[in-house]
Amino acid sequence: MHKYCLSLHRDKYQLADQTPNLNMNIRINELIDSRDTVNKWMERFGVRFGVYKHGVFNEQLFPFDSIPRIIPASDWSYLEKGLKQRVMALNKFLWDVYHDKRIIKDGVVPEEFVYSSKGYLPECEGINPIGEVYAHIAGIDLVEGKDGQWYVLEDNLRIPSGASYPMIAREITRKVSPQTFTQNAVAENRNYSKLLATMMDEMNDDRGIAVILTPGRYNSAYFEHSYFAEKTGATLAYPGDLFVEDNKVYYAGLYKEKTRVGCIYRRVSDEYIDPMMFEASSLLGVPNVMQAYKAGNVALINAIGNGVADDKGIYYFVPKMIEYYLDEKPILQNAPTYLPYYKNDYQYILDNIKTLVIKDVSEAGGYGVVFGKDLSKDKLAELKQLIIDQPRRWIAQEVIDFKDLEILDDDKLVERKADLRAFVVSGKETKVWASGLTRFSRNPDSFVVNSSQGGGFKDTWIMGEN
Amino acid sequence: MVKNTIISTSKANSLYWLGRYEERVYITLHLLRKCYDKMIDGDPEDYCPIWHKLDTDGVYPTIEAFALGIMYDDSTSCTVMAAQTKAMDNAILLREDISSETLSYLEMSLALIKECRQKQETNIICLQPVIDWSLAFWGSAEQRIHNHKALYIMMLGRNIENLDMLLRFDYDFERIALAYDSAKRYFQQMSNIIDADVEAELNKLIIKEHFDLQDAAYKSKVLKLINQLVKV
Fold first, then answer.
1. CB A201 to CB B1 under 8 A?
2. Same domain membership, residue A343 and residue A289
């Protein structure tokens, strides 16, 4: 593994390349100096995300740190293979769960984990998504341990968000600090829109137009929805713009004009996508879209029902899925995980709860995550009781001592916890985007990096061979 | 990717009102400059005509209070801040149609107005960049909006607002006839969203023989028709 670090050199920050064969010339001072300018440009382009606090919607800027996370080509090659392998297996699992259920019959994944998962939707049984792809866009959260080993923390297969931020950050940083990029072979990341557009075209197969269905302006990721629409050439559709007629989906224009829709990149959750099949009170979805989907007349990106595969409980079984479906050894490792469902794990968790991180499988966005070390005696006892009462609801993981990245806090260089969300796009082929969203915690004591909890982000540079 | 040329009702509405509000920002600032110039030599109450013509009845004790009111007051719809906010509220829904670059001029304008409000700036010169960015916005829109129907709807909004403001401020016939002619170019392009009966009535009213903005009934009727012309 190659290592890079920032070190204080006299009064200047320098990016020290500890791998002599790589010829890098990171103009780190220029990048540091550019931070405020880049953030100003972000504001100019309206790069924000929305947060609801106490029932009030507020939009805030997503703080950008101009020092990138740098991943050398050799590390990336390993990650790329591992990510592709993982997502291919997850797609096969989803197909299997909603069709033959071989993996359950063969006892690899216990059926309780599948059928009690909130993400499992019996309404999706037997549906054949176009191209047999379920997770067209997968966001895989990884951390790099201090030993250089990468661990997968979470798979996001429903509506993973965040790719737009490094994309636009790169666009702006290239304007502000062009020489940094002339002197370093950083893999292009603005091609994410091309990856998306190609995948949408493949799923659409000339049936009609492609749309991105947004719940609307007050969704936390609205910037991303509109930015992707601009960059891919898809139409941004709002609830009410789409309707179904004879099991086909249409986009409604002025004065009864309509045009056929062949592909919907939906940013609306499963439960709200079709009020005729799921949450009847939903005003965010398209009535009867599931009928059109079942009939194979429209592609839904991502497929409905994917939640069963990114359930925190199912996560435990992903390495087993890789072996089962692909007959390969998993390239990427999970963080060491314990399921109270299994007797041995159950006892281990109760005995070692103080050193573990406990996650509620039904929560997301950094919520429902507690560190045993942070809990009082009473709270620990309370949590133990919850685990005893509802073992299926919890997983426990060893706390990974993951690598800190250096960020600029005001004008000081400090170390903070950071993860990486890698994006894998599956159409006819599965491709890994050579970049990713690096999120960091701004709180020195926190391992939680989610933007909704005040974190910031960095661009992720994948370096070329030279 | 198959390009969509159809515009949804909600999008047409946003395009139209974006055009109107952005033009309102520009004209309000233009009129304010004229008003300020007048107040240098005249009375503090010289602000009143502009305020009343915008259908509001605010009373301000000083020129400074008036300036702060018309530039930054959120509670009434005819201020620069309110118009810019509403332009932004519509534009934010149209990023993929108008482009991030076009949208950025409105982001910068709104950020500047907020900053000036924070500093309680009363000299209108502080908002000069808003005028410059408004013109840049229109230039960028013409260059970057590829769906010509979307551009026409926005231009319709712009022209209707221009006419509305010129009528409110009693501009002379030549100026208003010219503005009406300019708007008509877009009526032809977007005839399906123009109310033909209203247009026919306006055609009869905006002619030299009938033109009389001192006649309150005439003025009110023309203003009403102008605002009923576009059906989005």
1. yes
2. no
Q: Write the CA distances from B13 to A300, B87, B88, B105, B193, integer angstroms.
A: 28, 12, 14, 21, 11
Q: What is the per-residue pLDDT for A29?
A: 76
Q: Which of B151, B189, B182 lies closest to B166, judged by CA?
A: B182
Which of B9, B93, B100 shows the shortest C-beta gap to A254? B9
Mutation target vs B (from A41, A48, A49, A235; most B CBs, 10 A cutoff): A235
A347 Cβ under 8 Å from any chain B Cβ:
no
A9, A251, B212 from A5: Cα distances, Å: 12, 51, 76
Q: What is the pLDDT of residues A389-441, one digit of tens each?
A: 988 889 999 988 888 998 988 778 899 989 999 999 999 999 999 999 999 98
Report DSSP letters for B190-220, one per residue.
Answer: TGGGB-HHHHHHHHHHSSTTT--TTSHHHHH
Each residue of A430-463: pLDDT tens digit?
999 999 999 998 778 776 666 666 689 999 999 9
pTM: 0.90
The residue among A344, A374, A398 that closes a domain is A398
Q: Which helix (H) or strand (E) holds A119?
A: none
Of B2, B6, B108, the CB nearest to A44: B108
Query: Is B100 close to A258, i.e. CB distance below 8 A?
Result: no
**pLDDT score recorded for residue A183:** 82
Q: Which of A206, A233, A252 sits opposite B8 (nearest CB)?
A: A252
Nearest to A217 among B4, B11, B93 (CB): B93
Q: A133-155: per-residue pLDDT in tens?
A: 999 999 999 999 988 899 999 99
Q: Does A242 touch chain B (CB under 8 A)?
A: no
**Interatomic CA distance for residues A148 and A150, integer angstroms:** 6
- Pair of tokens at residue A310: 């990114």
For residues A372 and A422, state if they share a domain.
no
Domain region containing A170: 4-330+401-462
**Residue A340: phi, psi to the nearest 5?**
-60, -20
Count of the separate structural domains present in chain A: 2
Residue in chain A closest to B95 (alpha carbons) equals: A226
Same domain for A272 and A182: yes
Domain residue limits, chain B: 9-145, 147-232
Same domain, A216 and A365: no
**A391 and A449 housed in the same domain:** no
Look at residue B45 in the predicted model and tell me its pLDDT.
63
Structure tokens at B9: 């009702």
Is residue A157 located within the same domain as residue A219? yes
DSSP state of B170: T
Task: Give A237's contacts in chain B (Cβ within 8 Å).
Answer: 8
Question: Mind giving me the DSSP string for A52-107?
Answer: EETTEEEEEE--EEEEEEEE-HHHHHHHHHHHHHHHHHHHHHHHHHTTT-HHHHTT
- Quick: pLDDT tens for A314-345: 999 999 999 999 999 999 999 999 999 898 99
Domain limit, last residue, from A344, A377, A398: A398
A201 CB within 8 Å of a chain B CB: yes
Average pLDDT in chain A: 89
Band of pLDDT at residue B74, cut at 50, 70 and 90: confident
